[in-house]
Structure formats: C-alpha cells, structure tokens
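Our example copied in:
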Amino acid sequence: MPEERLAAMEKKIDAIYETTERTRKYFLWTLIVTLAVFILPGIVLMFAVPSFISNYSATMSGLEGL
C-alpha cells in the first residue's frame, strides 16, 4: 500500500515538474521576444534620431541661403 502511494506521488511530482519547466521556457521566450520588440528598437532609435536631426539641421541651414 505505501509503495502504491509513493508511486502515485512520484507520478504527480513528475507531472508538476514538466509543467513547471514548460512554464519557465514560456516566460524565457516571452522575455526574449519582449526585448527584441521593445528594447532593441529603442537602442536603434538612440542612434538614428541624432543622425536624422543632424541631417535635418544641415538641410535647413542650406535652405537659409536661398
């Protein structure tokens, strides 16, 4: 009788472990996708916006002479 209960508990613990690992992987990929979608474009914009402003300012100062 105790062996049966032990086997049943072991089965349930294994199922819980599998579910926990699936959830952990889900959260890991959610974090990776979040970083790729929000953080990386923000970093790119930090370099692109100053370049755009510089080009825009150069263009506007070139038009002043007209």
Summary: Residues 2-64 form the longest helix (63 residues). Residues 41 and 47 are 10 Å apart (CA to CA). The chain has one domain: 1-61. The chain has a mean pLDDT of 92.
